[in-house]
Specification:
The complex is a heterodimer. By secondary structure, chain A is mainly α. Chain A is 73% helix and 0% strand. Chain A is globular. Chain B starts with 17 loop residues before the first helix and ends with a helix. Classes of the chains: A mainly alpha, B mainly alpha.
């Protein structure tokens, strides 16, 4: 009997090792492949970052190389003469306002759809969720005419309205699922204490779904920050966001490779920072529904 | 899934008019919550898409809507020059793009996920490295690669020369035969991390006992992967296929940055997204609105239809494998 007790931990401890280990050469090949691909994935981004710190002459002599004497003029020039300061501000204003507005109205709508019972609630939910499948870009021409007729063409407000609306289906989808999962006792108690519906919503329910709010906001922020099509069509010059600003910069300063590298870095940095701050949420969001 | 049933107001039910007043208050409360989203979504998403459908059924003279045209705008897409050349060509390019991307990105994504699943060191770093290109704007990816692929100053040809393969240096973006495959590779570079993450999450969900059982039965590593792991990944493969399809048939930004709005060189990288943009905003045809709207409806039907069919197909395959 005593031997079986002693043996037991031995069965438990190496459990990690029950995963089939690859034979040695295969393991080395596998590791090599993983790191080689990581290098291939990162190399262009590294070349971009290094290139932004080198002079035009250095880039022409040696396309790949370290910035022996890092120069920051590229950034200064792209920022002021290249117009990136304006594009950057536009991108921040438009993206942040769209995310706040879109998430705000989505959380308002998701709450009654998930927790009140009223006629048409099922139909309304389906109406919002249908937007997940709709290719919004294909309605660009009517959107253009619509904004034109209400005086919001070539305006950041118009762009924000379209962007905020485009985030509603995803927001309602995620947030209503979270609201549905909350226990009923929460509001019962508050209601007995005499709290009004709006107060229950704002002070009890919304704080409970805060993680979902972060996910929704993140997943609106990234595609909107990167979007190119709507600002290309709906606004002009001084209201361009970074991706469209880039196309304009390229058209204007075709030969300024070093400055373009700087512009690309300026466009990318906020997303990389966001990703490093919220890796977990982003990875979890991308694989939502995949893990059990 | 608890659909809560409850009253919206508390307190004793007042006599007589109390019920209607309560109902009015309840309605006002619902409106407060629902109206902002409903208005924004209807005005800026649903109304434009319905308008696009309506536009496609009328003939247009500039900005003036003419008479009902039935399906003639749709017929124009395939019979009226230059659309009759452009639409099938762009459609073909989208199909090639989809098949090429699937082959590269799904195979590489699956391979990386499986290898990563077995390795222990540097897992988090590797995963981050694979997913980073996915976060970058397609416009940034396009311009970055167009500089790297530059025949004279580009990093790619320089690297080839550096390792003694200078003979392989090419005008990557300028050769009409190379331009589309190159765009596919750039797109795959950007997207590989996404299927990799999905496969990795699915792999993590497969209990170790399954492999154990296969091994006890004497299955080789490959057989175990093919018979145990792979069938369990079918749902993910289905999701990846459908999402890749949707993404590829909507593609526009990356090619715009790599090859301009006309899909250079000589339309060899033209795709439906670019063609739609040009038809809607750069076409000299008086009926441009009718035609571009017809193209939009066609793209929508194609993307939607194929997604639904593919979904059903993968569901059936999943059921068969169980």
């Amino acid at each position: 009997m005593s031997t079986s007790v002693l043996e037991k931990p031995q069965v438990v401890v190496p459990q990690r090792r029950t995963r089939r280990r690859l034979p040695r050469p295969a393991a080395i090949a596998s590791t090599a492949l993983l790191w080689v691909y990581a290098a291939a994935a990162l190399a262009p981004l590294i070349i971009m970052a290094l290139g932004s710190l080198r002079t035009e002459q250095q880039l022409a002599d040696q396309p790949i190389g370290l910035p022996t004497h890092p120069v920051f003029e590229n950034y200064a020039q792209a920022w002021s003469e290249g117009g990136f300061s304006q594009y950057f501000v536009n991108s921040i204003v438009v993206t942040v306002c769209s995310v706040v507005l879109g998430t705000g109205v989505a959380v308002l709508a998701a709450y009654p759809l998930a927790r009140f019972r009223f006629p048409l609630s099922g139909l309304l939910t389906a109406y919002f969720l249908a937007g997940l499948m709709l290719p919004i870009r294909l309605g660009i021409k009517p959107v253009f005419f619509l904004l034109n007729s209400i005086g919001l063409i070539d305006s950041r407000v118009g762009l924000i309205c379209v962007y905020a609306a485009s985030g509603i289906p995803f927001g309602v989808f995620v947030l209503s699922a979270f609201f549905r999962a909350l226990p009923m006792e929460l509001e019962e108690a508050a209601r007995i204490d005499g709290a009004g519906e709006l107060r229950i919503f704002a002070q009890i329910m919304v704080p409970m779904v805060r993680p979902a709010l972060t996910t929704v906001a993140l997943f609106q922020f990234i595609p909107l920050w990167n979007d190119f099509f709507f600002p290309l069509v709906l606004v002009e010059d001084d209201k361009y966001t970074l991706p469209v600003g880039l196309t304009r910069f390229v058209a204007e300063f075709e030969a300024a490779h070093a400055q373009l590298y700087a512009g690309l870095v300026i466009t990318t940095i906020p997303l990389v920072l966001l990703f490093l701050l919220a890796t977990k949420q982003i990875v979890a969001g991308l694989t939502a529904g995949m893990t059990k | 899934m608890v659909q809560a049933e409850r009253r919206l107001t508390t307190g004793p039910a007042g006599p007589g008019g109390g019920a209607t007043r309560r109902r009015a208050r309840r309605f006002a409360l619902l409106l407060t919550f629902l109206l902002p989203a409903l208005v924004l979504y209807t005005v800026f998403i649903i109304y434009p898409l319905i308008s696009a459908l309506q536009y496609s059924l009328f003939s247009w003279n500039g900005l003036q809507q003419g008479g009902f045209a039935g399906v003639s705008n749709f017929v124009d897409l395939f019979t009226k020059y230059p659309l009759s050349d452009q639409v099938p060509r762009a459609l073909l390019h989208n199909c090639i793009f989809f098949v090429g991307t699937m082959l590269i990105q799904t195979t590489a994504g699956l391979l990386l996920a499986v290898l990563l699943h077995r390795s222990r060191r540097g897992k988090r770093f590797l995963q981050t490295a694979y997913i980073l290109p996915h976060l970058v704007s397609p416009i940034v990816a396009g311009y970055l690669w167009s500089m790297m692929l530059n025949p004279q100053f580009g990093a790619v040809n320089a690297a080839l020369k550096g390792i003694g393969l200078g003979s392989l240096a090419q005008p990557w973006r300028g050769d009409p035969h190379l331009a589309l495959p190159v765009a596919i590779v750039v797109n795959a570079w950007q997207w590989v991390g996404f299927p990799m993450l999905l496969f990795a999450a699915a792999l993590a969900g497969i209990p170790e006992e399954f492999h154990e059982a296969a091994r006890v039965d004497g299955a080789s590593a490959w057989t175990s992967f093919r018979r145990v792991t792979f069938p369990l990944l079918t749902p993910v493969l289905g999701i990846v296929t459908v999402l890749t399809f949707i993404g590829n048939f909507n593609i526009l930004d990356l090619i715009y940055a790599l090859q301009g709005s006309k899909g250079n060189p000589s339309f060899s990288t033209d795709v439906l997204g670019l063609l739609f943009y040009r038809t809607a905003f750069e076409s000299p045809d008086a009926n441009a609105i009718g035609q571009s709207s017809a193209l939009a409806v066609l793209m929508f039907a194609l993307i939607f239809g194929v997604s639904i069919v593919a979904n059903r197909f993968f569901r059936r395959m999943e059921a068969r494998l169980k």
